[in-house]
Amino acid sequence: MWFIKCGLAAAAALLCQAAGAQSVALTGSLGSKALLMINGTPRTVAVGSTVDGVRLLSLAGGQAVVEASGQRQTLQLGGSPVSVAGSGRNSTQIVLQAGAGGHFYSDGLINGRPVRFLVDTGATAVSMTVHDAERIGLDYKQGHPIKLSTANGVVNGYMVALSSVKVGNVEVHNVQGVVAAREMPYVLLGNTFLTRFQMRRENDVMTLDKRF
Questions:
Q1: Taking a C-beta distance cutoff of 8 angstroms, is the pair 76, 26 a contact?
Q2: Which of 209, 205, 169 is nearest to 71 (CA)?
Q3: What is the three-class DSSP state of 192?
Q4: Which terminus of the chain, N or C, has fewer Cβ atoms within 10 Å?
């Protein structure tokens, strides 16, 4: 049996670079300019401009694409906090800042399609709803049918193989996942992903170092 839990919170998206404790959050917009919080200091940044080493590439629909130290991230108003140490393809560390309620959130990719994760050490696998699976084009019905024990009772589900799960610039391949016939506001980043990392937490910061 599988037990899945989830929580609710809202937080600003963050970007952290290995060169220091650099963080970037999208707090609003003013016309064609983004209101960014860079290392705790409010900045107004126009598209194409660079402020404190952060370049604003685009701003539209409540999203801002920024680049710093060669690393590109999409920030969302009310999005999930994610910070990544290192840049480029060889990143091996993920640093997450706790959001409201002490939960850890991250925007990421499953099989190359965008999702929003909630870190859940109580979830056995990376777990998503049928709606999320269909949205990312996952043929979950080809997986192994299972029963899942949840706080609201037993529901039907499928055990599936995910080609890749990516958080920031850190990508893990061949991850076991679960698709559940229930509603959840986030994809749960469970232990089939988390056990690939050495995890440590200091106050409101969680660091995941990829195992080799």
A1: yes
A2: 169
A3: helix
A4: C
Is residue 194 helix, strand or coil? Answer: helix
What are the beta bridge partners of residue 180? 129, 157
Q: How far apart are CA 209 and CA 71, in angstroms?
A: 18
Residue matched to tokens 């299972």: 146
Q: What is the pLDDT along the chain (212 residues), one digit of tens a residue?
A: 333 333 322 233 334 433 343 577 788 888 888 888 776 678 888 998 888 778 888 998 888 888 776 677 788 775 543 453 344 444 788 888 888 788 998 889 999 999 999 999 999 999 999 999 999 999 999 999 999 887 778 889 999 999 999 998 889 999 999 999 888 999 999 999 999 999 999 888 899 999 87
With tokens 């002490």, the residue in question is 102
Tell me how far apart the terminal alpha carbons of the chain are, to the nearest angstrom. 29
Q: What single-letter DSSP state applies at residue 60?
A: E
Within its chain, how far is the Cα of 80 from the centroid?
7
Nearest of 200, 210, 205, 168 to residue 17 by alpha carbon: 168
User: Bridge-partner residues for 179, per DSSP?
Assistant: 128, 158
In the numeric block, the tokens 């106050």 are attached to 203
Pick from 81, 92, 88, 87: nearest CA to 197: 92
Instruction: Sort residue 208 into left (φ over 0), alpha (ψ -120 to 50) or beta.
Output: beta
